[in-house]
Amino acid sequence: MKIFQSRSFEQKARNLTKQEKEGLDQEVRRIAEDPSIGEEKKGDLMGS
């Protein structure tokens, strides 16, 4: 599975502290392992 990040996500992630970045990376890996976790998007993001 390939994971892509938007430009705005990349810019916001760049401003995180090292500890916050590690937490973010951990959550991204967790979602990649099981994409069904979390809440379904609504509105324009539905089905994305």
Question: Keyphrases for this structure?
Answer:
48 residues, mainly alpha, 50% helix, globular
Give an overview of the whole structure:
With 48 residues, this protein is an all-alpha fold. It is built from two helices and no strands. The longest helix has 16 residues, at 18-33. The two termini are 16 Å apart. The mean pLDDT is 87.
Hey, roughly how much beta strand do the residues contain? under 5%
The N- to C-terminal Cα distance equals 16 Å
Spans of at least 5 consecutive residues with low confidence: none
Q: How many individual helices?
A: 2
The counted number of beta strands is 0
Q: What global shape is seen?
A: globular
> Mind telling me the C-alpha Rg?
12 Å
Order of helices and strands: HH
By secondary-structure content and strand pairing, the structural class works out as: mainly alpha
Main sheet properties? none
Helix % is 40-55%
Mean pLDDT: 87
Brief summary of the model shown:
The protein is mainly alpha-helical and 48 residues long.
Question: What order do the helices and strands come in, and which of them pair?
Answer:
Blueprint: H1 7-14, H2 18-33
